[in-house]
Design a protein that fits this description.
It is built from 29 helices and 21 strands. The chain is an alpha/beta fold. The protein has an eight-stranded mixed sheet, with helices on both faces. A six-stranded parallel sheet has the order 9-16-13-10-12-11, with helices on both faces. Strands 17-18-19-21-20 form a five-stranded mixed barrel. Strand 11, helix 11 and strand 12 form a beta-alpha-beta unit. Helix 18 packs antiparallel against helix 24. It is globular, with a radius of gyration of 28 Å. About 40% of the residues are buried. It binds one DNA strand of 9 nucleotides through helix 6, helix 12 and strand 14. Keywords: ATP-binding, Helicase, Hydrolase, mRNA processing, Nucleotide-binding. This is RNA helicase. Pfam families: DEAD, HA2_C, Helicase_C, OB_NTP_bind, WHD_HA2.
Length: about 750
DNA sequence: TTCAGGATA
């Protein structure tokens, strides 16, 4: 083992003493002792993540309970726990441990527990008062992950509620929120203007330059690949030794840029054109999430002598990976972001400008080991006019269905007035409530049903969980468990960039579709899962069929986890049991209908379909589907929507009208404001019974399908939300005046 | 007639 490796693995005892945070040790411990809430801010390199929990541990905070520290990402939770266990001098999993999905490395002895924010949220479901913790530290709060945002709101409430003997905790829970950026005033105000503790960072200065190649009018994102290449080559010839990190948006852009870099570097011999005589060549390396890990090794190794390394990466290099030796940054100024569009009720992957704080974080990647330089391809004007101060937090961009169910299960009934640090748009919350009502997770008054309590246990989207539970009640969970697992991992079908290989892959995939023996994409997924698992060499089977082995391996893991959860729940006495008389194919598709009936579409003109969710969007079946170019379809359900050149639906299954017709009224009959439980105390059981009787009568009156479709479309247009609110308020007022019995 | 940024339980 060489020296470099050794120094990476040993913990130098003086290092932690030398960190910027160490001189604030006593003050920090005191601040936690006297305040229920504390905000700690400090740049990367301040040592707050590794040191603060240790200070609290040595100060005795671990005597009354654990010190829990959350991270938004798995790797961070694991590596920080490793580091801290070495510093304390215990084996990992004893006094210092971690817990992430599929990997619990903690024990009864564990006092400092690092975990993902999602893990802590799960723990709160089982133990709402967090009786096993004395301190909870939410780290990286500035990243504003969905789970951290929910935890912020929950912890704000938990600590303010009176606690004592009966609640199972002797001392009040302490909450520390750690954030890197300067937006700490908002966090402090959120927690009743709690104190903010600032720790100076230890990073090197990074000079920033706007190259001005992209201005506010350059909305066409294809330009930035070319500009980024130009700037990277310019700096290669004009700057002193040091590696380059280029930020781009995605795999295809990165591959394009790498091709161009190679081409140009060959056309002009850059080895003889560089300012620094110690730099001879350029090593170009792509880096993105779905890249095979064996190809990533070179990225983290120092380049050969005389060679400058140029890593072309996605945001993965800004968030979760650190590459040593980077001195130069080339920032495209863009990122791909999944945004929920509630007007069409779909998620759209968009290329958007990054925020100023993200740009600063990207620049900071050049100042980890020495002073660096950041080249931004956009103009100062672009910075000022197009880039927001902070990123829109995840909670305001994504589907809230699963999160709202979690809140409801934690007795947060009025989910609209929950203390959000940044409130999601009301229509997003209402849409989530509606979806939960549609899959029977909550009742008309917004209360969690027995089914909803079962559903919250699964780490899946509620619609998929509903289909799984339906199958379980019918005793055919073996059909849905693999499907649920396959749909919760990344796409398993490989689509290579090269034309020849692409055709090869397509032939293999078509073969798999035919072998599944049915025109149903869900059945294709089930077939792939079963065939691969049954083969002698699953990894070779994947290679032969152009299937992502990494994705399938993780699907096997997820399936096992889902099966364990289901087994546990099935032991409950009141687990639902149903019977069904029909073919296996029909059984399978009817289970899917139960979960996905909100995603139902009907044939429209030609090969287009029209969604029946009230938006009435025109959609196309994606060319990768088994149902693509099928002419005999009428009603279909689908798993998700992809908006690119057209609105595509993927993972499709044909259904019969009789299977969905009884479910369809549920798509439009409900008043979403009632579900939010704004006026829980005012809605009586009798009122609900009357309302339901009225709805049944209305349903019976709907004679033809055509009729109900028209009604649905009318009721669910853009004004439906305001109308619903008006109806609700009117009823409330009438009730107050005694008009309604 | 196609194109998946990054996470998470």
């Amino acid at each position: 083992m060489d020296k470099r490796n050794k120094s990476l693995n040993t913990v130098d005892s003086w290092a932690s003493e030398n960190l910027p945070i160490s001189q604030h040790k006593e003050k920090l411990v005191h601040a936690v002792r006297v305040n229920p809430f504390l905000v700690v801010t400090g740049e990367t390199g301040s040592g707050k993540t590794t040191q603060l929990p240790q200070y609290l541990y040595h100060a005795g905070f671990g005597k009354d309970g654990k010190i829990g520290v959350t991270q938004p990402r798995r790797v961070a939770a694991i590596t920080v726990a490793q580091r801290v266990s070495q510093e304390i001098g215990c084996s990992l999993g004893r006094e210092v441990g971690y817990q992430v999905r599929f990997d619990d490395c903690s024990s009864e002895d564990t006092v400092i527990k690092y975990m993902t924010d999602g893990c802590l949220l799960r723990e709160i479901l089982a133990d709402p008062r967090l009786t096993r913790y004395s301190v909870v530290v939410l780290d990286e709060a500035h990243e504003r992950s969905l789970n951290t945002d929910i935890l912020l709101g929950l912890l704000k409430r938990k600590v303010l509620q009176p606690q004592g003997g009966s609640s199972g905790r002797s001392t009040p829970l302490k909450v520390v929120v750690m954030s890197a950026t300067l937006d700490t005033d908002k966090l402090s105000a959120f927690f009743g203007h709690c104190p903010v503790f600032t720790i100076p960072g230890r990073t090197f200065p990074v000079s920033e330059r706007f190259c001005g190649l992209i201005g506010p009018k350059d909305t066409d994102s294809t330009v930035y690949v070319k500009e980024v290449v130009k700037v990277a080559l310019d700096l290669h010839t004009s700057e002193m030794a040091g590696d380059i990190l280029v930020f781009l948006t995605g795999q295809s852009e990165i591959e394009k840029a790498c091709d161009m870099l190679y081409e140009k570097a060959e056309a002009v011999d850059y080895r003889y054109d560089v300012r620094d005589s110690s730099v001879e060549g350029l090593l170009i390396l792509p880096l993105y999430g779905s890249m095979p890990t064996d190809q990533q090794r070179q990225i983290f190794e120092p380049p050969p002598k005389g060679v400058r390394k140029c890593v072309v990466a996605t945001n993965i290099a800004a968030m979760s990976l650190t590459i040593n030796g980077i001195r130069y940054i080339v920032d495209s100024g863009f990122v791909k972001q999944l945004n929920h569009n509630s007007r069409v009720g779909m998620d759209i992957l968009e290329v958007v400008p990054i925020s100023k704080s993200e740009a600063q974080q990207r620049a900071g990647r050049a100042g980890r080991t020495s002073a660096g330089k950041c080249f931004r391809i956009y103009s100062k004007e672009f910075w000022e006019k197009c880039m927001p101060e902070y990123m829109v937090p995840e909670i305001q961009r994504t589907s809230l269905t699963a999160v709202i169910l979690t809140l409801k299960c934690l007795s947060v009934h009025d989910v609209i007035r929950f203390p959000y640090l940044d409130r999601p748009e009301e229509r997003f919350i209402l849409a989530a409530l509606k979806q939960l009502y549609q899959c029977d997770a909550i009742d008309r008054r917004g209360h969690v049903t027995r089914l909803g309590r079962l559903m919250v246990e699964f780490p899946l989207a509620p619609g998929l969980t509903r289909a799984l539970l339906k199958a379980a009640s019918l005793g055919c969970e073996d059909l849905l468990l693999p499907v649920a697992a396959m749909l919760s991992v990344e796409n398993i079908f490989i689509r290579p960039g090269q034309q020849e290989k692409q055709q090869d892959a397509e032939t293999e995939h078509r073969q798999l579709i035919e072998e599944s023996g049915s025109c149903n994409d869900f059945a294709v997924l089930l077939g792939v899962f079963e065939k691969c698992r049954a083969s002698d060499s699953p990894s070779a089977w994947c290679r032969d069929h152009w299937i992502h082995w990494r994705a399938l391996k993780s699907a096997f893991n997820v399936e096992t986890q889902l099966r364990e959860i289901l087994l546990r729940l099935k032991q409950q006495r009141d687990f639902p049991v149903e019977t069904f008389d029909g073919s296996r194919s029909e059984l399978f598709r009817r289970c899917l209908c139960t979960g996905y009936f909100a995603n139902v579409a009907r044939r429209s003109v030609g090969r287009t379909f029209c969604t029946m969710d009230g938006h009435g969007s025109v959609v196309h079946i994606h060319p990768s589907s088994a149902l693509f170019e099928q002419d005999q379809l009428d009603w279909i359900i689908f798993h998700d929507v992809l908006v690119t050149s057209r609105v595509y639906i993927r993972t499709v299954c044909p259904v019969r009208y009789e299977w969905v017709k009884d479910l369809l009224p549920k798509l439009h009959e409900v008043d979403a404001y009632e579900l939010s439980n704004v006026a829980r105390e005012e809605v009586t059981d009798e009122e609900v019974a009357k309302w339901e009787a009225k709805e049944t009568a209305k349903r019976q009156a709907e004679v033809s399908a055509e009729d109900s479709l028209k009604k649905m479309e009318r009721r669910n247009d853009d004004t439906s939300v305001s109308e619903a609110r008006a109806r609700y308020l009117q009823r409330k007022q009438e009730k107050r005046q005694g008009k309604v019995p």
